[in-house]
Design brief:
Chain lengths: 141, 260
């Protein structure tokens, strides 16, 4: 189930400065993120950060628009329908899902990149709090 | 009540969490006069020449850390596929990881197509990856190989631009090597001539003592990059126990592969 409340979708897209400090208990984590400043929260810490975050999205957009130009509107429409279906088969938000169907559709099951070697989510040492994450996903938070 | 934060699902790849902290640390450290340790660069000369039936790749074997030689005999010619090899200059770790990733991708790709990979494919993969990271991956590469269309040689810069040329040099010693090439290159050389050209023969006087030589790599008949087998008897054998296993053949099935 992939119902996201409107509030949680908005929260993802608009960065709010100074409202949610990143550390535990809501206190600024000076050791990891340095001193607070509005500029720090708004600007990305590394020039590549934004482009890397949106990389998969931009790749997909580019591929779809090329496909539309070559084969007509039906091709990206059908593919996007399959993407949506594949994206709905996930585990609960705090558990790691393998995205196997999505990978097969994108063709990234036959490619190795830095996302498979560095910071493999399957080996991540932190787990989100189950109740909070499910409530966030459903938009109840 | 303290606000509880919800962590986003972790995604793989590069993590920029610490870059703000590192910037602050670097600023503070330089104020106090300390220098943070730099990434190890290769301090290299690498070159490649196309001759009549193939490609010769040459590289020196020294890795430096600032003004100090870190490794006298490091291997800068990396395997990409049985018919394609790549020399790497720049940050040593970047060239290693990049060539390994591309080698894996090319292997998967060739298994999928069922054909020997082409040098142009490797070039395109490398170029797209390096451009994606906007030059932050400091890998300058000389890619050479032989495929169904003949011998090819490419030079790839850290920001993602590539050149397809008959002779290329990269690295900090590239100017001197290019001077030698410009002087002595002729099109359609024989194999021996090309090897002679590729050997770096402009050694500085204080390097004579430390010269480990250049490993030229000829790609028509493929040789492994070095032989690391010790002679039998190097390590003395103290005791030997032989246990025979009595196994009987239960079932044998033969599956022929369609290698077309």
């Amino acid at each position: 189930m992939n119902t996201r409340g409107l509030r949680s979708q908005l929260k993802d897209s608009v960065p709010v400065a100074g409202m949610c400090p990143q550390g535990a208990y809501g206190v600024q984590d000076s050791l990891r993120s340095g001193f607070t400043s509005v500029k720090n929260e708004l600007l990305p810490s590394h020039p590549l950060e934004l482009s890397e975050k949106n990389f998969q999205l931009n790749q997909d957009k580019m591929n779809f628009s090329t496909l539309r130009n070559i084969q007509g509107l039906h091709a990206p429409l059908k593919l996007q329908m399959e993407y949506r279906a594949a994206r709905q088969i996930q585990r609960l938000p705090f558990l790691q899902s393998s995205h196997l169907a999505l990978d097969t559709l994108r063709g990234s099951d036959e490619a190795i990149g830095f996302e498979d070697i560095l910071n493999d989510p399957a080996h991540s040492e932190m787990m989100g709090e189950p109740h909070m994450m499910v409530e966030y996903k459903l938009g109840l938070l | 009540m303290a606000t509880l934060t919800v962590t986003r699902p972790p995604f793989g790849g590069f993590s920029f969490e610490n870059s703000k902290r590192n910037a602050v640390l670097e600023g503070n450290a330089s104020k106090m006069g300390f220098n943070l340790p730099p990434a190890r660069k290769t301090g290299t000369t690498i070159c490649g020449v196309v001759f009549k039936d193939g490609v010769v790749l040459g590289a020196d074997t020294r890795a430096t850390e600032g003004m100090v030689v870190a490794d006298k005999n490091c291997s800068k010619i990396h395997y990409i596929s049985p018919n394609i090899y790549c020399c790497g200059a720049g940050t040593a770790a970047d060239t290693e990881m990049t060539t390994q990733i591309i080698s894996s991708n090319l292997e998967l790709h060739s298994l999928s197509t069922g054909r020997l990979p082409r040098v142009a494919t490797a070039n395109r993969m490398l170029k797209q990856m390096l451009f994606r990271y906007q030059g932050y991956i400091g890998a300058a590469l000389v890619l050479g190989g032989v495929d169904c269309n003949g011998p090819h040689l490419y030079s790839i810069y850290p920001h993602g631009s590539t050149d397809k040329l008959p002779y290329v040099t990269m690295g900090s010693g590239s100017l001197a090597a290019m001077a030698v090439f410009e002087d002595r290159y002729k099109p359609d050389m024989e194999e021996e001539e090309a090897k002679q050209l590729g050997k770096v023969d402009y050694i500085r006087p204080h390097d004579e003592a430390n010269k480990k030589g250049v490993r030229a790599h000829e790609l028509e008949a493929v040789h492994p990059t070095g032989d690391y087998k010790y002679k039998r008897g190097t390590t003395s054998v103290l005791s030997k126990v032989v246990t025979t296993l009595d196994l009987e053949l239960v079932e044998e099935s033969v599956q022929t592969m369609d290698t077309s």
